Amino acid sequence: MKLVEATEKDIPLIQDLARRSWENAYAEILSNEQMEYMLSEMYSEAEIGGHLQHPDYHYYLIRDENNGSFEGFIGYQHHYEGSSTKLHRIYLVPESKGKGFGKGALEFLHQKVSESGDGRIILNVNKHNAARNFYESQGYRVYDEGTFDIGNGFVMDDYLMEFLIHN
Predict the structure, then answer these.
(1) pLDDT digits (tens, 9 = 90+) for 130-152
(2) Which residue from 2, 64, 85, 158 has the highest number of Cβ atoms inside 10 Å of its Cβ?
(3) How confident is the model at residue 166 (pLDDT cuts 50, 70, 90)?
(4) Could you tell me which residue ranges the N-acetyltransferase domain spans (predicted)?
């Protein structure tokens, strides 16, 4: 596995990977209308392009070194709040799950966060998303929950999770 820093030219690939992942991960959690709304808002060219221009926001593509295919991506922002890095996005295409890519991406993130000087990683996970179990298996814990209005009559009902970096 190799993580490759994404650039503007990778936006269509990120959009494709997000759609393929979301159609699997959220099929039984979100309505088609909410999924389409969120994908169009959160993964528009302007939105991702703006993230890529921000000095503390990073996207990395997850590549399988055995066959060169892109299996997913991770997007995070250092110093999001105080000395916390926010893991905004980590998605794998369905056929790559269970192969260690997610664990490897989190290990990569832990190293990058440690290098940044932040001491904590925070993330939101949908209350009905099995990914919560994965995060817990990697040492993350739920510290709160929240319901967030994302517009167009939709909300995100999430657990807030954290991981403490031991520098």
Answers:
(1) 999 999 999 999 999 999 999 99
(2) 85
(3) confident
(4) 1-166
Residue 113: which region, alpha, beta or left (left: phi > 0; alpha: psi -120 to 50)? alpha
According to DSSP, residue 12 is labeled: H
CATH number of 2-119: 3.40.630.30
Farthest-apart Cα atoms in the chain, separation: 44
Q: CB of 86 within 8 A of CB of 123?
A: yes
Domain boundaries, the chain: 2-119
Gap between the Cα atoms of 161 and 50, Å rounded: 25
Nearest Cα residue to 75 out of 38, 40, 49, 98: 49
Mean pLDDT of all residues in the chain? 96
Q: Is the pTM of this model over 0.70?
A: yes
Q: Give the Cα separation of 122 and 143 in Å (integer).
A: 10
Which residues fall within 8 angstroms of residue 38, CB to CB, at 6 or more apart?
Answer: 22, 30, 150, 154
